[in-house]
Every structure is written in structure tokens, then in C-alpha cells.
Amino acid sequence: xxxxxxxxxxxxxxxxxxxxxxxxxxxxxxxxxxxxxxxxxxxxxxxxxxxxxxxxxxxxxxxxxxxxxxxxxxxxxxxxxxxxxxxxxxxxxxxxxxxxxxxxxxxxxxxxxxxxxxxxxxxxxxxxxxxxxxxxxxxxxxxxxxxxxxxxxxxxxxxxxxxxxxxxxxxxxxxxxxxxxxxxxxxxxxxxxxxxxxxxxxxxxxxxxxxxxxxxxxxxxxxxxxxx
Amino acid sequence: xxxxxxxxxxxxxxxxxxxxxxxxxxxxxxxxxxxxxxxxxxxxxxxxxxxxxxxxxxxxxxxxxxxxxxxxxxxxxxxxxxxxxxxxxxxxxxxxxxxxxxxxxxxxxxxxxxxx
Lengths: 228, 116
Prior knowledge:
With about 230 residues, chain A is of the alpha/beta class. Chain A is built from 8 helices and 7 strands. Chain A has a single domain (about 10-225), classed as Rossmann fold. In chain A, strands 3-2-1-4-5-7-6 form a 7-stranded mixed sheet, with helices on both faces. In chain A, about 45% of the residues are buried. In chain B, the strands form 2 sheets. Chain B has a 6-stranded antiparallel sheet, with helices on one face. A 3-stranded antiparallel sheet of chain B has the order 4-5-6, covered by helices on one side. The two termini of chain B are about 20 Å apart.
């Protein structure tokens, strides 16, 4: 599938591995089409719980491991503009809201994106996901309407389909499946939870042929149905 | 990290007594606990780089162990500790990992602040 042309795609998520499950195929597809992509990752996933038993890492070594995994994932997707923003896992919602908006504004002014991909506030399960999406929506809302980039938002809470309906954007990323697998494999310390999520989706009735290795789904953010 | 050896860990706890130390204490079910099972009541707590000084540090019980630190005017304790390590920076890292290898509790002691 050839995706519509974009000037620049800005992807903003809080954790290394947030891109792997739902977006890495899309990122790789844009890159394969020669479209510049910037991925800003807000934290190093310092508070991840998968440390193994027997443990392969400690609380203090985990961020180093996850940073290496993030770099490997970027390489697998062919991504060259990776930005690590230096916040701490599980604290995004407690940061000053205005400071978060300013961080998003500076990413936007720096990359001048025609498309932004982030989480859908209130439907993204992890408090860091919701806080990241919130800050980005607020930053874009402040732009003059005609200058706003499109926003593709990811939602996967248990009530998201009930509230938002089916995602309107469906990318067939089959041709980038190898790159997506590369991104998934790069985050090996965290793969367990991704597989759990995959099992849950299959158990909830998602057909295997429709699964994450073939399709990635987004909601076009609609400011007429704003979250706040 | 390795499984707790009671005598060795007790000796390390003794070594940090009556010193100004930075503490990391965390309990967690994970941010996704209620997403995967809506019956889970998700609770946890986290403090990092708070300076304390304890006069007595003690390990109690069989594995998973309990660790208590007695302060002049208070207490710190953690339960569920299975593993420990004195890391290359001389920090005492203690943690409880469940059967699936997920961290459930961490108690860490250092003479210098932990990184941000």
C-alpha cells in the first residue's frame, strides 16, 4: 500500500516500544516512500516491570538497555531522526501542563509536520500515553486552523471502540512487515507485554488476517469532537 | 541480581546504617493491570532520591523477604523482596520479582543520588 504523500511526519510517544506494536509499519512505510519521519520519545521507560526472573536487569540498568533497544528499533525502521526528550517514565502527567505544550510546540516548529502521530487522550490506557496525547492536541489546537497538521491518534482502551467507533485510517503495512518485526524484536525486553496485548486482541475477536503485522489503525483527530 | 542471601544482605544493610543515604522505594502492579483485568484495583507508590538516615536495618522472614529500616522518627519497609545486588557504584539494590519476571517492589539505597 502506498500511503498519501506527507511533507514530514512527526511521531511522539512516551516510551521506547510504544512505536513498535502500533506504528512501526507505518513509520517504515513512510520512510520507504522517502517521506522524512521524526520520532520523539519522551522517556526511556525507566519504570518498566519486565526485568526477568532470574532478572536480566535492575531498575538502574533498565534505561540503558531500553535506550539501546530504541536505537535498534529506529535502525530497523530506517529512521534517522530519533529524539530522546529526557523525561521520566510514569511522570508525564505530573509535569507542568504548559511546559509539556511548549515541548510539543517546539517539536512542531522544528519539523513543520503535515502529519502528527500520537496517542488519543483518555483512550490510551497508560497515564503517560494520555498525557502525551493531551499535550500534543493542546499544542495543535492553538495553531490557526488552516495551519494545523493532521493528527492520527492511537486508541486501545477497552472502551475506545464503543466511544470512538472504528478507526477511520487503516494502513496495510504488509510490505513493511519485516521492518515491523525488526522493531518488535529490537524491544526484546518488553516483547512479553506486546504478545499479551496481541493475544487479548485475538481473544476479543480480531481475526488473525486483520492483525498487527498487516494493518495499523488510527483515528483522525477531530477538533469538533475535542476531548476537552 | 541474585537471590537474597540473608546473612550477606544483612551485612550490607548494616554497612549503610547511620549514614545519610538516598532511597528509592516503589511498589507497582503495572500501568496495564486494570486494562488486562478490570477487577484489579491498581495501586502503587514511588519515591526516589529522598534522603534518610536509619539506625537499624533488618531483613525478616523467608523469601520473599521483608526489609525494615528504623529511623529516629519513623520507618521505611518493603515486603516481597526476592533479589539483591551491590552494584558497581556501591548501591544496594533490592527487588521483588514475581513468577512472570515482573518487578513488584523495589527498595534501593545509595550514598549518592540515583540518576534522574
